[in-house]
């Protein structure tokens, strides 16, 4: 069951925090459109800039829910400052990544907020659950950027067997039918990233947005050649910088033309085949909602269609 703050959403959707892509404009547009806007704290170069962004977002979203994505790994030298700003600005939801959620749990719970921990496997899910998080973000196969390997059809029920908090599932979802499918697995929210990358409010450069529009799932490659960790990349983005995704990590990246990870080399999820244009975020949410309700209608229609044997003189499944 969703907490009250999330039950107010128009659609059970997290507009996923995307590195170098999600800024205040996208967070505000998404939250005002009725989904959960979010952004990664590392998109801000300094704590002062993060302070400014948080102030802008709080003023822009009004009472709508929103989320801050926080890197809690020990290599985040700014973590203490980030946590101080969390305590000051009180984002309703904090999503932790790349480390234990423990540093954020006490602070966020102290002001009544919720903590979601992103995890890519069952081991990490159990550790995050033991740390006292409210929800888990299940990064599944098909996700953009650093991706998971488990199917959401397997991941969600496996986590449900030991965790009774709410679940966010993501991986290749870019339309309302995928949102309905995510809920059908047993999740409570569905994370949608790449679809919101190709929006007017996204901070992705125009060429990046157009590459998402022009290409499909067959143009993606899972490779560790860029960061040393498997991630889902747009193959044309790698190839134009001379990177062979099939090569070893060192040989592929170090011998390539100068290119910055994430800034020049672009990630995407498997849902990009559903994206046909760059559109305002509000229009995207309208379309997602229409598709979602169409999917729900199909579920209801299928459930009400007599297909099984008769029971006690009546058709099974009839009312």
From TrEMBL:
CDD domains attached to this UniProt entry: NPD_like (cd04730)
Assigned keywords, A-Z: Flavoprotein, FMN, Monooxygenase, Oxidoreductase
InterPro entries per the UniProt record, alphabetical: Aldolase_TIM, NMO
Stored Pfam families: NMO (PF03060)
UniProt-recorded Gene Ontology molecular function terms: nitronate monooxygenase activity
Family classification: Belongs to the nitronate monooxygenase family. NMO class I subfamily.
Keyword Protein transport: no
Identification of the protein by name: Nitronate monooxygenase
Record-linked SUPFAM superfamilies: Inosine monophosphate dehydrogenase (IMPDH)
Coiled-coil ranges (or none): none
């Amino acid at each position: 069951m969703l907490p009250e703050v999330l039950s107010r959403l128009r659609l059970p959707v997290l507009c996923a925090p995307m590195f170098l892509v999600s800024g205040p404009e996208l967070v505000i547009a998404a939250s005002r459109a009725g989904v959960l806007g979010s952004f990664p704290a590392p998109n801000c170069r300094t704590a002062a800039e993060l302070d400014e962004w948080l102030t802008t977002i709080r003023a822009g979203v009004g009472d709508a829910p929103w989320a801050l994505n926080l890197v809690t790994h020990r290599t985040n030298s700014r973590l203490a400052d980030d946590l101080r700003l969390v305590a000051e600005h009180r984002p309703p939801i904090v999503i932790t990544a790349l480390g234990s959620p423990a540093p954020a749990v006490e602070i966020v719970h102290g002001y009544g907020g919720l903590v979601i921990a992103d995890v890519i496997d069952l081991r990490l899910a159990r550790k995050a659950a033991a740390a006292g998080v409210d929800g888990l973000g299940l990064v599944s196969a098909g996700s953009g950027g650093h991706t998971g390997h488990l199917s959401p059809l397997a991941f969600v029920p496996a986590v449900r067997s030991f965790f009774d908090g709410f679940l966010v599932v993501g991986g290749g979802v870019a339309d309302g039918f995928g949102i309905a499918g995510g809920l059908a697995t047993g999740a409570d929210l569905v994370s949608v990233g790449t679809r919101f990358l190709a929006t007017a409010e996204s901070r992705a450069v125009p060429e990046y947005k157009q590459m998402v529009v022009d290409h499909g799932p067959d143009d993606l490659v899972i490779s560790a050649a860029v960061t040393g960790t498997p991630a889902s990349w747009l193959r044309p983005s790698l190839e134009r910088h001379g990177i062979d995704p099939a090569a070893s990590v060192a040989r592929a990246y170090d011998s390539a033309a100068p290119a910055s990870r994430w800034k020049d080399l672009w990630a995407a999820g498997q849902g990009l085949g559903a994206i046909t244009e760059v559109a305002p975020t509000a229009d995207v949410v309208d379309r997602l909602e229409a598709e979602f309700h169409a999917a729900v209608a199909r579920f209801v229609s299928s459930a009400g269609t007599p297909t099984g044997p008769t029971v006690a003189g009546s058709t099974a499944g009839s009312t």
